[in-house]
Amino acid sequence: MFTLTKEYDKRLKECLEYLYLKTGEDDIGSKKYAENAVEYMNSKGKEELKKDIDVCILKGGSYKIKGYYLENNTLKDIRGASVLLTHVEETVVPDVIKSDFNESCIIYCGGGNIFALVPGNTDENYALKLEETAQKYLISANIAYCISRPIKLSLLLGKEYKRIISENESELNERKKLKIIDSIGVQSPVFLFIESSHVPSYAHF
What we know:
Blueprint: H1 6-21, H2 27-42, E1 54-62, H3 66-69, H4 75-100, E2 106-110, E3 113-119, H5 126-137, E4 143-147, E5 151-152, H6 153-156, H7 161-184, H8 189-196
Antiparallel strand pairs: 1-3, 1-4, 1-5, 2-3
Helix pairs in contact: 1-2, 4-5
């Protein structure tokens, strides 16, 4: 099941309030349903979830960053690269999410990773927007984000949590692989094979 420390419990509730608002509920209704959803989660499914909604998982960040840090081997450059990477991942990208959705959607942000819950009708290509924003600052760094398919909140907060997170992680890993292929160039035979195989549009530039 979805488990959080007390530090994030309040953030989850605020996130759910926003997500329920986006379904058309008013402030009172969104707070009521968000409280119920947290109770449902903490009860391990014993409580009834009064209103199920679709949500999407947004996950991603930098990967294989050693090469990015060591492009220039001076200590000053390495420190500068580290500061810039942290700024982009913990300020620039979260600010985009806050602007497009709500700050409360970000459940976790740190250590080169971000985990957020966004409305179920979020376009899969939103991941591209975040990648392109990050690459404006981090031209040579490896950055990948992934938007899951719409998921029922009851499953995410219930017994299917581990399966859903595992699937989302696999999708993110596939995205990372495709970005490596992209960096080889569009004339790559592997790239052309992927193009002809109708890989979803969010999978490459």
